[in-house]
Design goal:
The protein has 12 helices and 22 strands. By secondary structure, the chain is an alpha+beta fold.
């Protein structure tokens, strides 16, 4: 059945209750037709059983009979329904306005499927520009010349008609509306990608902050457990000190959590604003309405103002030495009790950050001999024929670890037994490797070293001479990246050798090892990276 024949009787195919094309049409005794569900629901809520059209009252609810004729006719008619609020109605329909399927930019009118048929049939109308239905087609006309806005002036950044280009915008850079539409749509795509990236960056920052809080909470719980274990072994007089210590730790943790909560709340607010803008940009990007996109583009092209979160982070509070310092303040009898416990809580704490370190052969000077497992290094007399890659040290007898660290805390231990000179510590990834090295923080090295068998120094600027009670056989190296701390320990004596404090780290750090020259066999013992045995 043609669309035209349907138009002749379109009112006959509309249910008077739902005002839409019949679905399951039925006939009641008075002869009027309704959708089966419509009339059933109408009678379910009505006091009387009567016809909604003629008001005829039925003593009993009539039995409904399917109207096969209307059902077949409705099934063959195009799926045209009445325009609902918010939808564009057909400008040609009289009486009940059907929903428009297309709008014509030439006719400045919107058409339902039936009234659109001439634009699909007549040759002259086929040339008209059809778009998805839009309201206010008059806004697409030039207010000054009453001509369609079908061009874009790039000079004045506005939509113009053909007459505008001759009069008000002569010699301006004029392009077709579609060309500018495509360009702006591409820019919107870029803007959307940038916003999505900002959202992802902030979501990652939230995860980073939450992870930092979790690690900080673990540190606090560990420290509290250590304090409880130590103080319960002491006399009742120290219980007050224990409570004060726990309170201090918990206050630091509360401060960390409060700071993190503020950051997370601010990040979530920014994400909400960015997601809202994304939805607006996404909706605009899908439109085929050239004018609407161009008119809305300036307000949506720029992402909402957001904070630069690159350098923002939650620094976990450092508890290094907290228990040790608290115990040191106790009376002499309490210190003796600590000696009986044979425990150094500071070393035990940093050992919990032990990492597996192996030597990187690509950085080793050609005279160095590395073990197959990458755990030992010593100096040999023969220079190996190795490629002079950028990572390799040329003149100095040193090698870096394979592992790099740009956040958090890490600890490793090295056996130095039998050696009369060595260097140990950490170094920046950007250090110079092709010339003579001067060890100092300024040059990217945080190290301690041994010379002449008994002369220990820290590579501060200038070097600091260290006075040690015993000669370390095993050295522990601990780094807290965020706190700017590098500490060295005599593992067997459970004693601190030296600490670099207040350091500023901005790039990756690598474990640094130098066995120094073998001195004719006097210093042939290797440096050995050992597995960490946690202090009992």
């Amino acid at each position: 059945m043609s669309a035209a024949s349907c138009l002749l009787s379109e009112e006959q195919f509309l249910c008077s209750i739902c005002l839409d094309v019949f679905t399951g049409p039925v006939t009641i005794p008075c002869g009027h037709n309704f959708c089966k569900n419509c009339i059933t629901q109408h009678w379910d809520i009505s006091v009387q059983c009567q016809c909604p059209m003629c008001k005829k009252v039925f003593k009993r609810r009539p039995k409904l009979h399917v109207n096969t004729f209307i059902s077949e006719m409705a099934a063959h008619c195009p799926d045209q329904r009445c325009a609902k609020p918010g939808e564009v109605p057909c400008d040609v329909c009289t009486g009940t306005k059907l929903k428009a399927l297309k709008s014509c930019l030439v006719c400045l009118a919107s058409y339902c499927e039936t009234h659109l048929e001439p634009h699909q049939r007549k040759t002259s109308l086929k040339k008209h520009k059809l778009i998805d239905p839009v309201e206010n087609l008059e806004d697409r006309m030039c207010k000054e010349h009453d001509k369609p806005l079908e061009l874009f002036c790039k000079t004045d950044q506005m939509c113009v008609c053909l007459l505008c280009t001759v009069l008000d915008h002569k010699s301006h850079d004029i392009v077709p509306l579609k060309e500018e539409y495509e360009g702006k749509k591409a820019e919107l795509g870029k803007t959307e990608a940038e916003i999505q990236q900002k959202i992802q960056e902030r979501q990652l920052k939230i995860q980073e902050i939450k992870h930092s809080v979790e690690l900080s909470k673990e540190d606090a719980d560990r420290e509290i457990a250590d304090s409880v274990r130590v103080f319960t072994a002491l006399m009742q007089s120290v219980e007050r000190g224990q409570a004060e210590l726990i309170e201090t730790i918990e206050e630091k943790q509360k401060t960390t959590e409060k700071q993190a909560e503020g950051f997370i709340k601010e990040l979530e607010q920014e994400i909400s604003e960015l997601m809202k803008r994304t939805a607006e940009v996404e909706q605009l990007s899908r439109t085929q309405d050239h004018l609407h996109l161009l008119q809305s583009f300036p307000s949506l092209n720029t992402p909402p103002h957001t904070k630069d979160w690159t350098e923002v982070s939650v620094h976990r509070s450092s508890y290094e030495g907290t228990v040790r310092r608290a115990v040191a303040q106790l009376e002499e009898t309490l210190r003796k009790e600590m000696e009986k416990l044979s425990i150094d809580p500071e070393l035990k704490r940093v050992q919990q950050y032990a990492v597996d370190v192996t030597l990187d052969p690509d950085t080793a000077q050609a005279y160095l001999i590395l073990s197959d497992n990458g755990k030992q290094v010593n100096h040999g007399n023969v220079k190996k024929n190795l490629p002079d890659n950028p990572e390799r040290f040329s003149s100095c007898t040193c090698v870096l670890g394979k592992q790099s660290f740009s956040s958090g805390r890490f600890y490793y231990e090295v056996q130095v037994k039998g050696k009369i000179k060595w260097d140990l510590g950490v170094a920046r990834g950007s250090i110079s490797r092709k010339e003579k090295i001067t060890l100092s923080p300024k040059n990217g090295y945080w190290t301690v070293w041994l010379r002449n068998g008994n002369e220990y120094k820290a590579s501060s600027g200038p070097p600091v001479l260290l006075s040690l009670k015993s000669k370390p056989q095993k050295v522990g190296v601990f780094v807290d990246y965020e706190e700017g701390l590098v500490s060295f320990y005599d593992v067997d004596a459970a004693a601190l050798i030296y600490s670099f404090t207040g350091c500023t780290f901005t790039e990756k750090l690598y474990p640094y090892f130098s066995p120094c020259t073998n001195d004719g066999g006097k210093n042939s013992a290797p440096l050995i990276i050992l597995p960490v045995n946690h202090t009992d």
